Amino acid sequence: MPMRLLMALAAILLAGLPAVSQAGGKQVAPVADPLTQKVCGECHLAFPPGFLPARSWSALMADLSDHFGEEIVLPAGQAAQIEAYLVSHAGDAPGGGGLREFMRWVAPTGIPRRITENPAFLREHDFPDRVWRDPKVVTRSNCLACHPGASRGWFDD
Ligand code: HEC
Ligand code: HEC
Predict the structure, then answer these.
(1) Cα(52) to centroid(ligand 1), Å
(2) Which residues pair with 67 in a beta bridge?
(3) How far apart are CA 126 and CA 135, in angstroms?
(4) Residue 141, pLDDT above cutoff 70
(5) In this predicted model, what pLDDT tens digit does every residue of 48-66 receive, in sequence order?
(6) Does ligand 2 come within 6 angstroms of the Cβ of 118?
(7) Quick check: 48 and 31 in contact, CB under 8 A?
(8) Is residue 157 one of the residues assigned to a domain?
(9) Of 118 and 95, the one with more pLDDT
(10) What total of structural domains would you count in the chain?
C-alpha cells in the first residue's frame, strides 16, 4: 500500500471519521448536465460518468424499475436524455481523456453497475469493517462521507 494511502487510512482511524484532504490532486469531471444532476443526485452523489464505461450507463438506464431495489420513474424522454449525457461522458467515450485510466478498473467485456465493485476501487478502499459501519458512512456508495469535494469532482488526496 502506498505511503499516502497508509497515511490517509491512519487519519481516518485516528479521527474516527473517514476524511480525505483536498489539497492537490486531479479532478474527475463532475456531472454538468442539470437534468442528470437533479435526477441522479437525489439519493446519492450524482456519480461522475467517467467512472463507468458507456455500456454500464446504458444498462443502468435500461433498468430504472429495479435500480438497486429502488424504482425510478421519470417523465417520458428524460431517461433517454440522461442516458445520452452519461454515455457521451463515460470513461470510454471518445475524448474521455484522463478518465480513461479509470477504465482499467473494468473487465474488457464487463458491464459493471457499480463503481464500488471494481477491484481497483476495492484495493484503494481496503479499510477495516468498522470504517464501513461508521454511521456517517454506512455504504461504499456514500462517496460524499469521505470525499467532501466529490460533487465538484475531487476524490484525490
Ligand atoms: C430513489 C433513489 C435513487 C435515485 C433517484 C438514483 N439512485 Fe442510484 N442508487 C440508489 C441506491 C439505493 C443505490 C445502492 C446504494 C448502496 O448500495 O448503498 C444506488 C446505486 C447507484 C450506483 C452504484 C454505486 C456504487 O456502489 O458504485 C450507480 C452507478 C447509480 N446508482 C447511478 C444512478 C443514476 C445514473 C441515477 C439517475 C438516473 C440514479 N442512480 C438515481 C438509489 C437511487
Ligand atoms: C470510507 C471513506 C470513503 C468512501 C465511502 C469512499 N472513499 Fe474514495 N477514498 C477514500 C480514501 C481514504 C482514499 C485515499 C485518498 C488518497 O489517495 O489519499 C480514497 C481514494 C479514492 C480515489 C483515488 C484518488 C486518487 O487518485 O488517488 C478515488 C477515484 C475514489 N476514492 C473514489 C471514490 C468514489 C467514487 C466513492 C463512492 C462511490 C468513494 N471513493 C467512496 C475514502 C473513501
Answers:
(1) 13
(2) 70
(3) 18
(4) yes
(5) 999 999 999 999 999 999 9
(6) no
(7) yes
(8) no
(9) 118
(10) 1
Using the mean position of ligand 1's atoms as its centre, give its distance from the Cα of residue 101 in Å. Answer: 23
Residue type, position 17, single letter: L
Q: What is the pTM of this model?
A: 0.88
Compute the half-sphere exposure of residue 2: CA atoms within 13 Å on the CB side of its CA. Answer: 7
Q: Summarize the confidence of residues 69-74 as an average pLDDT.
A: 97
Non-local CB neighbours of 101 within 8 Å, separated by 6+ positions: none
Residue 41 in this model has a pLDDT that exceeds 50: yes
Q: Give the range of the structural domain holding residue 124, as residue numbers without chain letter.
A: 3-152
Residues with Cβ within 8 Å of residue 35, at least 6 apart in sequence = 78, 81, 82, 85
Which residues lie with the beta carbon below 6 Å from any ligand 1 atom?
39-40, 42-44, 47, 60, 67-68, 70, 72, 82, 114-116, 139-141
Chain position carrying cell 477491484: 119
